[in-house]
Amino acid sequence: MGKSGKKTKESHRHGRGRGASHFRGGDDCDDLPSSAYDAPPPHREDSDDDDTDVAAAEDEQEDVDGGDLDQRQVGSMPSKFHLYQLSVQSPKGDISYLQKFFLMYVGGRVPLHLQEDFCGTALLSTEWLHSDARRTAIGLDLDLESLEWCLENNLSKIGADGYSRMLLFHGNVLQPNEACIVKQNISDLVQDMHINNDNSSLASNICDQSDPTNLKCSANSTMSSVTLPARDIICAFNYSCCCLHRRKDLVLYFRHAFNALSKRGGIFVMDVYGGTSSERKLRLQRRFPSFTYFWEQEEFDIISRQTRISLHFQAGKKQMLRHAFTYHWRLWSIPEIKDCLEEAGFKSIHTWIREMPNTQSSGNAKEYNADRDVKYEELQHFSQGDAWNAYVVGVANV
Ligand SMILES: C[S@@+](CC[C@H](N)C(=O)[O-])C[C@H]1O[C@@H](n2cnc3c(N)ncnc32)[C@H](O)[C@@H]1O
After folding, report:
1. For 207-240, what is each residue's pLDDT tens digit?
2. In the chain, which residue ranges form alpha helices assigned H by DSSP?
3. CA 348 – ligand 1 centroid, Å
4. How far is the CA of 319 from the centre of ligand 1 (A)?
């Protein structure tokens, strides 16, 4: 599978992989994070089931006459969300860095309360809940379909109390208070509330436990009408801030994030990419055992700094899921982001950066292995190159 895929002009194997699967306490980040641009290779431990699913779907596709299929036509092709998560996300790595940043810049306590803005299928939030029963997560996104997919496919795997420790909100990051809680399966919620009566339950914050019928009303709540724990960490990953095109919107969004962070100190973390390769037409691909992932970047407009990115997947010999995801992005520069964070009230801002493999090279095993060892470093200066990825960390209230 995938071997018969037409090779693109610039075939590029990103070398960032998932390392050890256990969180190591923030001293070092063995798990590297994810991004759409820098797709990690699949990791057996995380994706055994997933590979099986994709392979099964691929087998079913073998007899089907292919060609480029619109996503409504693909029938048994795996869900685009499923392929996306396998291709571009590695939440353990992101969480390692989040924890490391919190301990470095805030410290004094363990971060427990996460908000994932632009959360999509909230895989990161789901992983966050996994590792510590005291943790809570809030996800916010405009796309109801991805939020509902999360409840059914991610949160459902996390165990009995997952539903009570995560709340998903459907709405705009520019108006978070108006975002509505995505209805969970009410019977799951009632059951979980009996199991989880401690204060790590977000559901108990919005529901009267003595009156389960109250849940129905609460499920229509907005973010402003419920009591939520002050967030220790807020993140916006996979270049999501590039969805905001106007400077005043970026500042407004950062202000909302700042206000939701704990007065005892908290961090906002976003990622951004750049380099000369990010400012031109570019097509990258990465092969997975049972499908191929494509990143397609249209011409870059240097006046508006905008581009359009499409993600495509090929599964099976001829099945192409084109434009599974399309993003219209303004590629913010790091100094622009820093200025906006400062304007929004953040006290200090830190840039962690990592050079990426050259997009012009064809990629081979050697390059791949060497690249696995490259980690993010906090830097004040970094010379322009072909491709880089960065975390920008805003520290509040310390
Ligand atoms: C590039 S995806 C990132 C998804 C996820 N954070 C990840 O790491 O893969 C961008 C997400 O932002 C959402 N989005 C775009 N503009 C938004 C807005 N103004 N408010 C809330 N969500 C938004 C989209 O629906 C999409 O799910």
Report:
1. 433 333 232 335 579 999 999 999 999 999 999 9
2. 44-61, 80-88, 91-105, 123-130, 144-149, 162-165, 186-195, 202-206, 214-218, 247-260, 334-344, 365-372
3. 25
4. 26
